[in-house]
């Protein structure tokens, strides 16, 4: 689906490798129309959003898998453990895709340095998300199951069902909140060597 390509620099050297995907031209054209003078930054944001969407799929998929198998949301501790595992898997995917697709021209820093910076930004994002999750999932679960009971009179969820639903809803909002933090912090710190 994606292939490595090496664009030539103006001096004829091949400075970096990047991934090419079938949607690259579509994103570039859309960025030119929307961004005009800031087209490159708009292109980066669109790619960052695509990478984030993939990360979200990994994130929510891991949460659903773990909650329905080995770590049901019976306590705050289990909710935060599942949230943390899912977050780490998504962050690993996001780092790889951002390094080679969103910011392929960010090679003046070593991969170790960027991974460390990306990791610090991600840990702060995880803290933000865990604070949000622990404070919101139970209330969102109660609210959503009450609404469902109003619509479906026969619906009688267990506490675990209520917590699963609340955790999923809180996760969606948590991802949106942390996405803004991650984009800004990574763009201006981790990948600040791109023009």
Topology summary:
Elements: E1 3-5, E2 18-20, H1 24-35, H2 39-67, H3 76-102, H4 111-151, H5 159-190
Antiparallel strand pairs: 1-2
Helix pairs in contact: 1-2, 2-3, 2-5, 3-4, 4-5
Global structural class: mainly alpha
User: Can you summarize the main beta sheet?
Assistant: 2 strands, antiparallel
Q: Mean of residue pLDDT? A: 86
Shape: elongated
Helix content: over 70%
Quickly count the helices: 5
Q: Please give the alpha-carbon distance between the first and last residues.
A: 28 Å
Radius of gyration: 20 Å
Number of domains: 1
Strand order of the largest sheet: 1-2
Order of helices and strands: EEHHHHH
How many beta-strand elements?
2
Low-confidence stretches: 1-14
> How big a fraction of the residues is strand?
under 5%
